[in-house]
Amino acid sequence: VTTFGIKRSDLILQGQQLYRLITPIFLHGNAIHLIMNTYSLQNIGPEVERMFGPGRFMAAYLVSGVAGNVFSSIYTPNPSLGASGAIFGLVGAYYIFLHRNGKLFGRSGRMQMDSVTRTMLLNVAFGFASPNIDNWAHIGGAVGGAFMAEAFGPKLLVMGLPNGARIIVDKPTIRLPRSIESIPDQITDKFTRVQRRMRVDRFQSDL
């Protein structure tokens, strides 16, 4: 794992192996580490993906993971790996989403923001208390996710129609290129085609 892609601050800051800003996101130290991050991702991921859409969700996740590894490389020499920086980024992105669209969500949105704030503060406090947790990756990930949400995240506006009806439209500050937003759909289409081909092949092999 160390050879393949764990976060190495020295190699990253020297500009020798910048791919290590990305590869640690997909590596974990053991099964428990993987299970804990999977559980956390399952808690926050579906809601963020529903609000942001698959393309912006993917972009926020990856940018947050990279931002977390940048912070970690700058502030700690210790090697690290895991997706927690990216997951913290999703939490940060969700907070910004609730904040900038607070008028639409009202009291429910404020309660969710309070819950997100408590969760992040508790995790950061726990991280600083534990020497085995890369807290700078968590903080950097949250900053990266917040930036992505502020720049590219949903900005919901209520617009009136000529017939008197009202609709909610998404007007982000900056729109991600369609080529990026469509990547998850393209991947899904490819898997679907492969699955169909496999079913056809199995059917033919049974003849």
Description:
67% of the residues lie in helices and 5% in strands. With 207 residues, the protein is mostly helical. The protein has two domains: 9-174, Rhomboid-like (Rhomboid-like fold, Up-down Bundle), CATH 1.20.1540; 177-207. Strands 1-2 form a two-stranded antiparallel ribbon. A hairpin with a 5-residue loop joins strand 1 (156-160) and strand 2. Helix 3 (54-75) packs across helix 4. The longest helix has 28 residues, at 102-129. The chain is globular. The termini are far apart. Residues 203-207 have low confidence and may be disordered.
Offer a few descriptive terms.
single chain; 207 residues; mainly alpha; Rhomboid-like fold; two-stranded antiparallel ribbon; 8 helices; 2 strands; globular; membrane; Rhomboid-like_sf; transmembrane; Peptidase_S54_rhomboid_dom; Peptidase S54 rhomboid domain-containing protein
Can you summarize this structure?
By secondary structure, this protein is mainly alpha-helical. The protein contains 8 helices and 2 strands.
Mean pLDDT across all amino acids: 89
The structural class is mainly alpha
The N- to C-terminal Cα distance equals 45 Å
Number of strands: 2
Q: Approximately how much helix is present in the residues?
A: 55-70%
- Spell out the helices and strands N to C: HHHHHHEEHH
Work out the strand percent. Answer: under 5%
CATH architecture classification name of the largest domain: Up-down Bundle
The top level CATH class name of the largest domain: Mainly Alpha
Mind summarizing the main beta sheet?
2 strands, antiparallel
The CATH homologous superfamily of the largest domain = Rhomboid-like
User: How many structural domains can be distinguished in the coordinates?
Assistant: 2
- Contiguous low-pLDDT stretches (5 residues minimum) are 203-207
Number of helices: 8
Strand order of the largest sheet: 1-2
> Any idea what the radius of gyration is?
20 Å
Q: What is the general shape?
A: globular
Keywords: Membrane, Transmembrane, Transmembrane helix
Protein name: Peptidase S54 rhomboid domain-containing protein
Pfam family, one: Rhomboid
Membrane topology: Multi-pass membrane protein
